[in-house]
Every structure is written in structure tokens, then in C-alpha cells.
Amino acid sequence: MKSQKFAFFTLLMFFGVLLYGCLENTPSTESNSGSQLTGNVIADTKTGHDKIQETIQTAIADGTYESKVSYTYHAGTEKEGQEEVDVSITVENDVITAASATPSDNAHVISKGIITKFNNALPELVVGKKITELDIPHNVAGSSLTTAAFKAYVEGLTN
Fold this sequence. Notes:
By secondary structure, the chain is an alpha+beta fold. It has helices at residues 2-23, 48-55, 109-126, 144-158, and strands at 63-72, 82-92, 95-103.
């Protein structure tokens, strides 16, 4: 018990001395061979959040982003199980102004239909919304895989 009290007291004294040294505001007596700066000291009262907001103006630069996004669909061999979607997103001031996901020319006939339905539903879900605040459901127009591929593409743009 005595050793615990002693350890606690020692720790308390250590932090007290450390804190006192950090808070003491006495001028230094060391000489500096460099030039002296004169003027008013302005305290930086901005929070970390405010500093970050000044540094990062937007999450993504304005423009149109296009890419071929691949994913594996439910059935088939490796060759037959790959699907490719042409994704395009236009962003202005972090707000999506246009978005599309179209099937590639060699897409499976069933996949073409599913991707087309996804593409038709997509603008209502994303256009006019901030790219960093999208809340796209797991399955859009019957297509969970195209939805996941689109979400992964958007996440890749903003990270």
C-alpha cells in the first residue's frame, strides 16, 4: 500500500513539474546571433476542423471521371464470370451533376439488361448530392453487383 501511494505521489509530482515548465512564461536569457523580429503576436484561435476546412476546399476536383469498372458476376467460369461497366461521373463543387453506368459492348445479354436498369435508376440516387455524402442502397434496380462496383469506384475517387 505504501509503495502504491509513493508511486502515485511521485507520478503526480512529475506531471506537476512538467506542467509548470510548460506553462511558465519567462523570457529566455540565451542570446541569439540572428536578427530580432519585432511586431505583434497574433494567437491562432482556429480549431483543427477550421484549419482542415481551409486546407481542403473540395473532396474532388471538378470534372468528369470515366473508367471501365470490372466485377465478377454470380455464375460461370473466370472468363464468363467477368463483367465490365463504363462508369462516368461529373462533379462540380463536390456535387454530382451527372452519372452513368453503361454495359460494355461484349457484356452478357442478361447483364446488359440489369446494368441498363441500374443506369436508369442511378441519376435519381446521386445527381444533386455531394459525392462524399452518397447513401446508395445495397441493391439498385435488381443489381447488387453493379451497385457495389459503382460504390467502390466513387469511394476510390474520394479517398
